[in-house]
Amino acid sequence: MKKEESVKLISAEGFEFVIDKKAAMVSQTIRNMLTSPGSFAETQHREVTFPEISTTILEKVCQYFYWSLQFASGKETEFHIEPELTLELMMAANYLHT
Amino acid sequence: MGSEVVDLVGLCIEAACRSPAAVEKWRRQRRSLERLPSPLAEALLHRLLHRGLLQPSLLEVFKSSVESIDLRGLSSVDAEWIAYLGAFKYLCSLNISDCHKITNSALWPLAGLTSLKELDLSRCARVTDTGFTYLLTLPNIQKLWISETGLTALAITRLSSFKDLSLLDLGGLPVTDQALSSLQVLKKLQYLDLWGTDISDKGASFLKSFPKLTFVNLAWTNVTKLPSLPFLASLNMSNCLINSIFEEDGDGFALRNLIFSGATFTSASEPFLLLNTSSVLHLDLSGVLLHDFSFLCDMRALTHLDLSSSVIKDDSIEVVRSAGANLRNLNLSNTKVTSFGVQLLAGYVPCLESICLANTHIDDTSIYYLSMIPALKSIDLSKTCVKGYKHHPGSEPVWLLSDLQTLAALESMDLQGTQVIDEALLPLLGCKKLDCLLLRSASLTDMFLHHLSALPRLTVVGFRDAVLTNSGLQAFRPPVTLKSLDLRGCWLLTEDAMHNFCKSYPHIEVRHELLQMVPSNSYKNPTTRASPVKHKKERAALALARAVKDSFIDQRLKYGRDELLSLQASVLPLELPPDADFLRNNLTK
Lengths: 98, 589
What we know:
The complex is a heterodimer of chains A (98) and B (589).
Chain A lengths: L5 E5 L5 E5 H4 L3 H8 L5 H5 L1 E3 L5 H18 L13 H11 L2
Parallel strand pairs in A: 1-3
Antiparallel strand pairs in A: 1-2
Helix pairs in contact in A: 4-5
Chain B lengths: L1 H4 L2 H9 L3 H7 L3 H6 L2 H13 L5 H4 L8 E3 L8 H7 L7 E3 L22 E3 L8 H7 L7 E3 L7 H5 L9 E3 L7 H6 L8 E3 L7 H5 L9 E3 L7 E2 L7 E3 L4 E2 L1 E2 L11 E3 L4 E2 L16 E3 L19 E3 L10 H6 L6 E3 L7 H7 L8 E3 L8 H6 L7 E3 L8 E2 L7 E2 L12 E5 L5 H4 L10 E5 L5 H6 L8 E5 L5 H6 L8 E3 L8 H10 L4 E3 L20 H19 L10 H8 L12 H8 L1
Parallel strand pairs in B: 1-2, 2-3, 3-4, 4-5, 5-6, 6-7, 7-9, 8-11, 9-12, 10-13, 12-14, 14-15, 15-16, 16-17, 17-18, 18-21, 21-22, 22-23, 23-24, 24-25
Antiparallel strand pairs in B: 19-20
Helix pairs in contact in B: 2-5
InterPro entries (chain B): Leu-rich_rpt, Leu-rich_rpt_Cys-con_subtyp, LRR_dom_sf, Zyg-11_UBL_adapter
Subcellular location (chain A): Nucleus
Pathway (chain A): Protein modification; protein ubiquitination
């Protein structure tokens, strides 16, 4: 993966997820952070830290980004969510506008 | 974008409400539940409710997140539910209308809920003055619906302590003039519903002391004189005997909606003389006995006009068209309007989207004039003499509905109870935006049903009283968009044939006397606040539906055994209109 096509998402515990920029852009919030004209640190370093989102949830969110891209391209599979993750994932999704 | 197709929040809510076991997995995550933003908590709660997974004890987990709860019409809601709701710290809005298990004592836990701003108790008939005393401890109530509860005039006078009230629905309660006079201290009141109350002209005179009043409903009361209310935008005086509205010339510049259905005007010559009606958008005069409609000339902003069941005739249509520049919706059903009236309208109503001419004296010539109203989306010609064709002996028949193909926006067509035949309807297949087509005639056959496959947007089809055979239904390939198919009165169909059809197309809701109706969504409840007018209409509609249902006679009684046997194989129309002999001859050739 070329550096310019990827972004780094960092969880509350400091875990780093490197994913395609295209996938991360599924989130409106991340899209705004990466594309806003101002000099956000996020725009320059292609790194976003989420002190409110735990590693487990951020991993699931990243899975959703890729699933969502596939879904949009016509591959209609089910996205499984473990019931115990629903509340935290819901809040993360709400924050990320995804 | 994938996020537009299925959003993650929605997927999470679905996953959380999948089963009782799924609920058990998250209900003890107390810290997460406390942090849940209220829109998410409310979406989750109402989804649980919809899935039948919400027990009163589960309400407890939402006590620090939910601000608004809608429990209307749930028969299970009782004192236990309200006891849990009493602990909701941030509850602003609670709707328990039509929850018939709610009693006086059930309301006790709500006492002292300072966050509560909106409370709907409509039609909780077991709530009386005793229960009302608990509500007096709700200091911040702004919107209160208590129509058709068991409250007396005494309780109503005590409403004066709710100083912040902006909306008050007292429909169907014994509100007296005196009780209304004690409410004059409610200076913030904007919306006041008093239908079916005991107030008279004296009570109506107190309305002047509510400076912000924009909405008043006085339907089914003894009010005959309405004082000037400068900010009034919406007035309902249906079924009243009306002497005068407003006192001075030119009052009423804010008026937008006027409902006078079933009202009687005593000074029949000029009921709106004093009213500045130039800004009125909606006017309902259904069932009103007025002979002079010249007041319509001033109503240049009108978008909706209902003159159904009035005494309007063609000679008044010229006045209607002078108010036609912005008209979107016109109802002339059950009047003596003829095709000439439609001719007068054509060309003067450029924005008209919906016209109802049901049960009028129009005939086939009206079709041509309707085709000259360019924005039409919905046409109702039911119960008229429309046939859809013209035929002079010795010449080819002319199919008149083809004129309607010029209406690019046409979406809905009602031809129930007309004398149309299959061939006359074929031109409608050129109206590609058609999504609702209602037909009811004994001249319809398998042939036209099969042609309906060609309409790509069709969602609702009525094909009633038709000579539709089992094989005809079996061969029907419905458009993929079709959701509802009404086959009532199609007496040749058997239960098996219809069950097979339903099995092949499970997403289509089929109606027929031989099929058991299963309500598609038992949770859905009336969302509008009922008024007696509406109730009455609904009841009448129900009664009508029942009468129609009861009157369905197995038409096999009408025919002998031999005739029936010969019909079984045939797809020909059974009852052609008397003047359609030419067709019968053509078909038998």
